[in-house]
Design a protein that fits this description.
10-stranded mixed β-sheet; about 20% strand; alpha/beta; 12 helices; 10 strands
Amino acid sequence: MSLPKPKISVCVATYNQEAYIKDCLLSILMQDYDGEVEIIVGDDCSTDQTAAIISEVGAMHPGRLTVPIRSSNLGASQNYQDMIRRATGDYIAHIDGDDYWMPGKLTAQMVHFRSNPECVAAYSNAHIIDDAGRLIGIFNNAQPETFDTDYLLRRGNFLNHSSMLYRAEFKNIILNLSGNFIDYHIHLRLSGHGKLGYINKDLVAYRSGTPTSTIKNIPFKVNDMYWETITDPEIAPKFETSRLSAQIHFYAYILYNSVRKNRMSYARHWTTRIRTECHDRFGLIFIQSVLLVFPIFWRSARRKIATMLSGYDFYPRYER
């Protein structure tokens, strides 16, 4: 007698995504996984037709969708936490309502778990689509089949949130996060309890630049949450070198974009904050960050000077 397949809970977070939510839900309903799949749809008080479309899909597939009643808007992080509390599966998947899955996504990840029992979570690559659903790129280059916290800190947040599937026994890691947080914080916390797995196939369609995109709408807040992630005291001391590398690259990113967009007050803000929070290592962070961005600015300055003096662009636009 074969054992029953593990139950999977799918947490769908949506807000004002009437143009995308049907594709998202149907892609979950059409998965070929032969175990039980619980679908929890967290509509965070949408003001468009999202709720009506969810009801329409639910009527077409009776008993398949659980839609918690929201009396007020929770926000992205708390919306996911509420769904995770309600989840009863052995594994939990996340997907944002403007993305969708490819056929076989859940089955491929469960096979990966069986082959790599040391993994606490599994992810996959994705292809990137625009608002109209046209293919515009690939989310990642090839990644290791399994990796740890060290690799994740050094590479940055390269994981696609809507591809995530993790063992439900670790859900308190997410529930214990306070305030607002980004998915990178979830990935790093999970990596503290085992390896993370990766499937080098496009099993998700990630929609870029939608009206509800967090990166698009609150980029400064995302930077705050990213910094809180890479300074998380829960990161084990043995990963201190890779944590430092992550902080150097983050500050270099801030410096580069502040100069490029003429936002020097923002660079000063982060310089003060990092000096305060990392006073014992600020000198190293500052010097290494400047060394990272200097070649980029020198190339740009060299080009501008040559063009100004000669009236001719010596450095074509396609120069890398």
